[in-house]
Amino acid sequence: MPRLDARISRQRRVSLAIALAGAAAMAVPALPAQAAGTEQPPAIEVVPGTDTRTPALVEGIAEPAEASADADDAAREHLVDRRARYAIPHPDQDLSTAEVAEESGGQETVRFQQSHRGVEVLGGQYVVRMERKNGNRTVTGTSGKYFTDLTVGTTPSVSEKTAVSRAVEAVRRGSSATLTKGTAVRKNGAAKAASTFQGVDKGLVVLARGAGVLTRHVRVTGTSPTTGEPLMQEVYVDAKSGFPVLQYSGLRTFAAQGVVPAEKAGKATASAAPKSGGSAAPADVTGSGKIVNGREVTLGLRQDASSGQYVMTDYSRMSATSKAAISTWDASNVDVTQASGVWPEGIALFSSPTPAFAADATEAGAVDAHWAAGQVYDYYRQQHDRDSLDGRGGAIDSLVGVTEYGSPFVNAFWDGQKMVYGSGDSQYRPMAADTDVVGHEMTHGVVENSAALVYAGQSGAMNEALADYFGNAIDVTASGVAMTDPNAGLIGEDLCRTAAPRDCALRDLNDGATTSKNFLGLSFQIDSGAVHLNSTIFGGALWDMREDLGGKLADKIIYRALTSYMTPLDGFTEGRAAVIAAAKDLDVKSAQLKTVKQSFDAHGIVPGWEKALGMDTDTLLGKLNISGTGADADAGWWTTSKSNDDGSAPYTVFAGRTDGKGAAKQISDNNGYYNVYPVTDGKRVVWAAYGPMGVSIMSRPINGGVPKTLFTSYYYDIQNLRVSGDTVAFELLDDYGIWHVNYLRDGDKLPKAVDEDPNSHWITDSRLPTLKDGKLAYARSYADDNGWTTIGVELLDVKTGKVTRVGEAGAPYSIGQPVLTPKSVYWIIDETAYDDNHTAVRRADLKGKNVVDVLPESAADAVWAMDMTASDDTLTLTTLLPDTDYRNETSPKLQQYGLDGEPLGRVSCNRGLQMFAASDTGRRVVWIDGTTSDTDLVTRARPAGRCG
Questions:
Q1: β-strand 718-724 against 708-713: which pairing, if any?
Q2: CATH fold of 256-449, please?
Q3: Helices in 345-496 by DSSP H: which ranges?
Q4: Active site residue: 444, 532, 603, 740, which one?
Q5: pLDDT digits (tens, 9 = 90+) for 107-157
Q6: Domain covering 160-253, topology
Q7: Cα–Cα dist 172/177, whole Å
Q8: Is the whole-model pTM more than 0.85?
Q9: Active-site residue, 103 included
Q10: If we measure between CA atoms, which residue out of 889, 890, 892 comes closest to residue 877?
Q11: Is 59 a catalytic residue?
């Protein structure tokens, strides 16, 4: 069985923005022939690394290593002796031991973590594989990523406090583009606004982009204000300027958050479980219970000698190794936000007065969770000689029955230390009630403690694919389902109380997904870069292997690829190479190796597949390599931010013509600041410049001139800029964590807030400004005498200061982006909180009268609008399709309408993210498109239509 060297520390979690694609294998000529009678060295194959001189994969070597040394010392010495091959100048200084795994056949796998000048490099892992037999040790191969071109300094300019503050605001900004009804805050400061997010500094980290980007890693936890779901975001803040350059989810969920609908009434219950304890010695016993399908199963339990209760903690499986337990905890009174990344207080093990657990434990999902956890442990121990999720006999804890604000929670996740299962509702059973769900979440723990595939983009989709594969492999084996069964590839098919398996399943490993037809390019704010939406492309290839090779061999190949070849930043192409290399390592037959390759071919996972993704748009500026900074257009001009080709440079603002004529113009200086959120009225560009001491609003004429600083905020964040004529509007954060719309006219020294009321005891908020022809529209809240608020839209005449409150026809729950046309103001509104996220588009004239819904919320074809932009004669909405299907329309798409709500069609049929849309003139729209992994600024002059 494998073990990890006792001297090393727990493997670190690593993360990244975009997984790099590997290059095709390249044969390296054999060494010159040796003298007659000596053995000819084997041919060596090398896969070159991307953006590094260190090879991504080396195969076919059989080179002696120091037998008497520890495995990591012998592996490091191998890299030292062959610097010419590996281009790692100082393995003894830059590589720390992350993991040493030894298998029963003499296989040794050593994982090294790269550091740069003492700072950890995200995803910088290199693996050395060795074999030890008859007192000799041989190096058989290497793989991974060591980044050779890092030169960035490691002294930060941004304080921990600033980094945490900006990380929190980045998460807040990304989680909500609406103003939601709430309560006001007292001005006396006695009651601060309760923040839904908390940030913790995790130290300096280098992002491996070009010469490197020094960042502060901040973990932000909290609750989404729009969905109520738990968030745990890993945010990386540039340590020189303070701009958040990367963020993604730290929760490995079974389903994409916001996709599985949960009811908003009712509450799942579980048996009350007193804590076990006492002075007498406990006794290990075998108990029983029924899983939800009615089958009676055995359970490893412990009887507490003091209370006599039988509790769900199984010490028997690891009694000969670590003596740790598999434990199942009653979390029915725990909100999911209290269990995300932390251990909730006051929970106890599920218990029973007899060894036979009753029906309430079955309905709670406890029996399924505890039994299935044992099945998953047995699978990894018996099939792969792995002792628990971490390979070292670590404890396995499952929290069952969490709810969401007292209502059902229909999801499950691994948070880095435990499994958390939702309560289910009237449609879905408790989320632990399907073995593939339990196997899926526990496999996330195996992945984290081996290859640590980053949970974002392609590497995150591989993480999900491997969790699906092994979870389902364990499920079909435990259930006795044949691989030829049409439902064998379904994931989560047994969760529904009444729906048939195929109607219930969240994913199908036999869905035939390919890169050319199904791959979605999304930002990390959407499903962490499509980790679920793209997962069946890679997972389907793995499942095809299992169908064709049989479970035993396929499982062995894929497990070896995961634990001995894959590293954190691997994408689909590198994942293919890892699986093929693992198959060769296991000496499979040539026909079997051909099957492995054909499985990936059939799903379009071949070198260079990304280049074949088609688009129906004109590219205005390609390879932006930016995150969340937006774009704008007006009067025939566009503007956006751009990094360099490897994403290492601070963002620079560019502008150009929307018809594509002429070259793009650089607007902001290359001053080391991150220049973001640019907007234009066709005459000048206004943007925010992030530096270590503050955020400045900058302005520069499109036709040339010196950049001008309009305003600098030394303490508070700025977002949502707008410009029209002599006026700039934006949102400014205050002491209470509340946003306020402010505006500046040319010549003003300080901005003015639109919602200041010196006669009120309450602080309210205002959001989402829009400017046109001297009018400023925005959403804001209004407080009554008790601090309760309503929300609505206001129009401000910038010249006169007159404010018009737009007449409302109802009581909105939330308001989305307003826009202005020559005669009207439009805004997104949600009056019914729990109607599958349907929204309306409402219109009023510029006097605030004649309110009407041009797109009603109650309509059968009501949209879920996230954002809106307008020209003088069209509305363009960024929409989501709220459903449980994983498809192109699940990601943000652009829909265009006439001013009276008549549909004009989808703006573009591109597959992938369509965000930050800006209307120009007529029907032309400019937006940032994520179909390619680099993100591009694109345009269309008219809608594409229905997109078939």
A1: unpaired
A2: Elastase; domain 1 (3.10.170)
A3: 359-364, 366-384, 435-448, 457-479
A4: 532
A5: 999 999 999 999 999 999 999 999 999 999 999 999 999 999 999 999 999
A6: Nuclear Transport Factor 2; Chain: A, (3.10.450)
A7: 9
A8: no
A9: no
A10: 892
A11: no
